[in-house]
Amino acid sequence: MPTILSxxxxxxxxxxxxxxxxxxxxxxxxxxSMVESPFKPEILRGKVALLTGGGSGIGYEISLQxxxxxxxxxxxxxRKHVVDSAVSSLNxxxxxxxxxxxxxxxxxxxxxxxESTFKHxxxxxxxxxxxxxxxxVPSEDLSPNGFRTVMDIDSVGTFTMCHExxxxxxxGGLGKDPSTAGGTIINISATLHYTATWYQIHVSAAKAxxxxxxxxxxxxxxxxxxxxVNGIAPGPIGDTxxxxxxxxxxxxxxxxxxxxxxxxxEKWDIAMAAVYLASDAGKYVNxxxxxxxxxxxxxxxxxxxxxAVKQLSRVxxxxxxxxxxxxxxxxx
Length: 332
Ligand SMILES: NC(=O)c1ccc[n+]([C@@H]2O[C@H](COP(=O)([O-])OP(=O)(O)OC[C@H]3O[C@@H](n4cnc5c(N)ncnc54)[C@H](OP(=O)(O)O)[C@@H]3O)[C@@H](O)[C@H]2O)c1
Known about the structure:
One of its GO terms (biological process) is fatty acid catabolic process. By secondary structure, this protein is an alpha/beta fold.
């Protein structure tokens, strides 16, 4: 009987927790859709941004927000219909935008897309590398080819795009007035590799490499070409393929209780970080990967309730005050 009761109580607790989490998620989404950008709408006026993976999810939201702050947008992705529909959404908001089919794993595609962006808009100032592949898989079931594919998209693809964009992004580069600063690169990373993440060995390794690329290019190209190179590491972001493809939405609604800020992030949160890094507000920021996760990667279970800890520390304190304070004796 007690077991049945405790099972029922556990079920009720879980249901209650799920309901509360869903309410929190809905509330935060509603709130976000009403939140206006705190940045001035013209802070990126005259800039041209190229975004890999800019046709969907986080990449699309970054395209949208860079566009809303004055930038012209070029989107690169493999699926033509995704790119086309993103471009027409941006155009319908009055944002100058164009799109190119392309695979970041192919150097010839990278060269063509960067050149086409330059031909279309006459310059390139911002490169955002958001293209990525992801799926959950236990390490023993992941073939070396599967591992390599994710490395190729996330890490090699990021480097290839940076490499081909250099001649346009650098100070005095093609289409640039030599008296103005060089451009900027933003690499979309993750927090998976800060510790270790179940069934994500490929993405963890790929994003660790992305962070290395960010730091090394920040050093070399910051020094030689006045290009700032930074990253953004999103935590779990709601309403994205990254979350739904991994089936994480259900799991996270339970885990949210232990997460600082008690919620998953929104695409808008990542896009605001990108606006900051791309604008002059971030002009002295170089080589950093900005974690935008509400503190999620730091989250740990709370083993002691706070009241118990306060109680315990009062007892320990009292006991130590009553202990006679003598000269410490050597144990030797
Ligand atoms: N969602 C999250 O919670 C989360 C958390 C941490 C980090 N991130 C990072 O945020 C970024 C966006 O993720 P998302 O969840 O918004 O997923 P998403 O919508 O699937 O975005 C990935 C985009 O990359 C494009 N892409 C994939 N492979 C490509 C290739 N080889 N060449 C060119 N484009 C390619 C995809 O378009 P095509 O398939 O048409 O090419 C798609 O538009 C990724 O870098 C991801 O690792 C996401």
